[in-house]
Amino acid sequence: MSGHSKWHNIQGRKNAQDAKRGKIFQKISRELYMAVKAGGPDPDSNAGLRLVMDKAKAANMPKDNIKRAVDKGSGSGAENYEEVTYEGYGPGGIAVLVHALTDNKNRTAAAVRSAFTHHGGALAATGAVSYMFDRKGYIVINREDLDTDEDTMLMDVLDAGGDDLQSSDEAFEIYTDAKQLAEVRDALTEKGYKLETAELTMIPENLTDVPADKVEKLRHMIDELEDNDDVSEVYEAANYPDED
Asked: What is the C-alpha to C-alpha distance for residues 98 and 124, in angstroms, rounded to an integer?
């Protein structure tokens, strides 16, 4: 691991995300739909669906919303979403990956391109950026009221099959092989840990320092991308100067 604290970035955006809860539910509904299409409606036999359902519960998504999305994926509805990845560079030459679920690739591509160019970035060819990121399982355990030291946590993580542990005053961040995420999550849960987050993510191999005069532009670009209804995740290989 590069020392990148994904949790720090998540916490920094939490209030803004809470204000957009309706959009979050809409995006998770699409992910549930896609997961059911890919592996069926039974979370016991569909690990991907199980992860998205955990994500939905963590976001306090109502059970009725979850059920509707699963039922829609099980049926023969008219919706036909596709997964699309866009690669590019933000202000300051920061590598950015954008994952989207869309029923209209032309609409989504135009909106993503606009977000990049509006803020001094540019889309790049397929493969130009993706090699800079590793697909990993990512688990967070909040340290508040947790009576476990770092050595004990590391032993439990390794016993569960995790690859790496990073710790801060606020949380333990655990990284796993992407294919082992569900197994590690279940093993840690069985040990009595309450998981704040358990998801698949893209981790940058290295971070690029964001020039001070580009910070605001880059953040506005990321915000515009995340505000797009079709965009499910945005990953950036950015080291912001005020996060050191």
From this structure: 12
